[in-house]
Amino acid sequence: MSGPRWRVRIVLDEDARNPNHEYDQLAHVVTTDDDRGRYLPISDETGPLGWVWDRVKDSAHSGEVFERYARMFHGAVCVEDTQCPGSSGIWYVTGEKIARDDLTHGEVVEDIESQIEVYRKWAAGEVYECVVEKLTTWVAVDPDVEPSTKLDWVEVERVGNLYGIETAEEAARSELDHYARSGVAA
Q1: pLDDT in tens, 124-144
Q2: Residue 30 buriedness (CB in 10 A; 0-12 / 13-18 / 19+)
Q3: What is the pLDDT at residue 186?
Q4: What distance in Å separates the CA atoms of residue 116 and residue 114, rounded to the nearest whole number?
Q5: Of 8, 15, 116, 136, which residue is the least packed, with the fewest Cβ within 10 Å?
Q6: Tell me: the pLDDT tens digits for 65-123?
Q7: How far is CA 137 from the centre of its chain?
């Protein structure tokens, strides 16, 4: 065998947590429908306008009322997401946050849609890890042991929180390329 041999396995990330709880997100979200409790809320944190949702959620056209209030009185950009199956919600960014971060309407909508996509992948269980492994030769200390050498794959690195198989495949190719080019020894 000449030089290190590498492989990357893509496995489910069994420790993946709701991305809305793990990262500092631009948008806030209120869960508008959880199918009568069948699904978890999108996020426990409803942001600065959560109190508005609490007041209007039981009224007719509650989603429209919430979005109108958020836009009129807080300059918010809102995107409604009706995920089927799963919880539905209204994702929003207040005008104050938009002005503070000097964002355009298009940038905000793009960011919200990205957050929704990541959340959907998490909710569907599509979160992966790349496990980088090196083919290693083990040599027996006792020369009387047969066989005296053994080949085995040894984990070198694990990269997690990869939302979607396309992202995981891209990360796997990148990791494999990095290790294969660098000749890094474990």
Answers
A1: 999 999 999 999 988 878 777
A2: buried
A3: 45
A4: 5
A5: 15
A6: 999 999 999 999 999 998 767 789 999 999 999 999 999 999 999 999 999 999 999 99
A7: 36
